[in-house]
Amino acid sequence: MARYPLAIKIANVFVYIFLLGSNVYSGLFNRESENSPYGGKHLTYISPAPFVFGVWGLIHFLLGGFVIYQWFGDQDLVLDGINWHFVNITLLNTLWLALWHNDHLILSWIVILITTIPVSMIYAVIKRRDGNNINEIIWIRAPFSLYHAWILVIAFISTFAAFANDKKNDDSHPSLVVKIFVVIALLILAKLGTIGYLYKGKGDIAGSIVIAWYLYGVAVEQNDQVIHWTALVLAIISSIVILGSVIQKIRNRHSEESTPLIGGV
């Protein structure tokens, strides 16, 4: 059992409220501000449409359930598995948001890369566990699978904002080099969303959906034909693969290979 278990749980509650407050302010009260990550100040050729950022609402809702469930759920998973990683994630995520707001794009890029480490550590912990507990599936597996995929998306956006932030408005056109790197990045994300999450991630449908959702958002947002159609085709392919995985899980259930539908998350 981890040291200071009560401190971990109390800290989880406070940092969750802190992160929630920061994102609510940025996403709602500051939505039209050019400083908001949801308002589009740092335009890139890999940025999705604003509606894509609505995934934060689902993540926050599920994480809210986590900070409640931690008091009653599997204490070994919460205290030894997740441990202080959730505190680290939320503080780093909030720091990224502040740096992004204040145009420190290189620093925000470094911070978001660091953030992927504790997120991936939690993700690895939940992937090693086999369990059909519905509460664990909903309040631990699902939110951290969504969070893992979303942080990776933010990391890609931050990379282009830091090093290829040359999109001035919606009518701008990318250089050939930028266009090539955008296509490569979209291919990497699509591969991660299918092979990475669905196959290596033990059927992580939640993470795959986040990537597909993002790809649709890029297709909607970007006017460049190469980027638009690349994102759209990859989104459709990802959706087909996800649907196939869902069908396979349903078949497995009927054959009593009880793998939870969203808990492969």
Automatic annotation (TrEMBL):
The chain crosses the membrane at residues 7-25, 45-69, 81-100, 106-126, 146-164, 176-198, 205-220, 226-247. Keywords: Membrane, Transmembrane, Transmembrane helix. It comes from the Eukaryota. This is Membrane permease. It comes from Rhizophagus irregularis (strain DAOM 197198w).
